[in-house]
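A favour, since you know our structure tokens better than I do. Would you make up a two-line entry for one protein for me to read? Write everything out right here, beneath this request.
=====
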Amino acid sequence: MPKPIRFKFLVLALLALITLGIHQAEQVRAEMRSPPTDTHRGPDRTPAFGSAAKPHPGTARSDPAGIALSAAVDRRAVLHNGDGTVHIEVTIRTPPAERPAVRQATDMIVIVDRSGSMSGGKIYFAQEALRQLIDRLRPEDRFGLVAYDTYAQTLIPLEYASDRAQKRWRHVVDRLNVRGNTNMSHGLDLGQQMLEDARLSNRPARLLLLSDGLANTGDSSFEGLTRRARRAARGQYVLSTMGIGADFDERLMTALASAGTGAFYYLAKLEVLPEFFDAELLTAGQTVAYGTVLEIQLEPGVRVNSVMGLPFQQRGTKVTVPIGSLYSGHERTLWITAKVPTGRLAEFPLGSVGARFRIADGDHETDRHALPRLRCVATYSEFRDSIRADVWERAMLNESIGRSQERFGDAIASGTAADIDKEYTAANRHRRLATELGVQSVVRRLDQLEKSAQIAKQAQRAPAPVRRAEAKRQKASGYIERNRDSYLNADPRTGF
């Protein structure tokens, strides 16, 4: 090839390479400016519910679905030879739903008391609430109905809400009659067995227990009934309870809701029952995780006294607390009340906290959060200066004072004026610290609690109907205050 031709060929080849390079660079810059069009989710992005591959059995993966846990402690020191109380605030946050207007298909079983005391307005409003609930179900939902009196009976087996089924269910509800005693244990057994026999994986499921009276047939013991409620937590479904009128056992019904990881409703106003049924259906449809268990790893010498009244199990230095389902776009706060040793001036660790739960692709866990070290100090001023006023304020308002309000309700029903005075005195000992920290919200709440104590003592001396109603109102007020995160789609206070 002659030299001029070779030179011309080389120039053209060089120009082609330069042009290709410029074109590829422009493509890279364009991709960096534009949002990705690939609809598949990469490993660093929040997986769609039920979209990820299943993990190996027995393993748990962290940081799934954007669920995050944080923790804070209300103090950095305890007083030498003091009571050693520490409040730990644990918050679990879930991201909002990708399609917020879409409710998940749900299984809903209602267990309704139809004993003789439900006659009149009570059974009428129960029927109306059931009709409205049935009307709100979609074809992909499933519904079941158990009624109990001296014995329990399945009136509607768990089945899909087709038009034909809904029409038949309405006829069943229309014929609901009252009779007999109150065999709550048989009702719970039948409802739970119905759900567990037909349970579909990764599908929200909820039991609603409705009662107006005291369990007086079958296993009516507090221990036996709360043991049944804990079965719901193990089965990764939710049990909520609704007490109507003035004759049910509020201590039992709140305990069943806590053990069943659900909500408790007190209905002095029966007309709001349909609203609460609807709220439970909507809440179930927002479920993003099941069977959540809080795991607290303690250091030696530290013990847990309570977790907002929830049942917990301690084995050595590990504490587990079933807290049930998590819901989209929700923030759940739990208060752990712990006791630490105060006999020696020293610094010591508390431990760590995390949570595990199940979503459609298997078991997952949050990152564990290490709790700060505490000091045992000699003087009150050192102790006071260690208080984190914002966290301590929330502990008082959302946990401690609400617990006292609940106990007022228990004392009205079964205690004496001395029990109320003792509970108020225990709460009021925080007044000095609240004043010194300038936390006026706690001072005002203690003033309100003092008025509640006086009302509670007056109710103890009142006729039985007034006494029972006030016991339920104070118990419900305290319970709702402590468990406000359990109520997503209704204000439970509208019931009384």
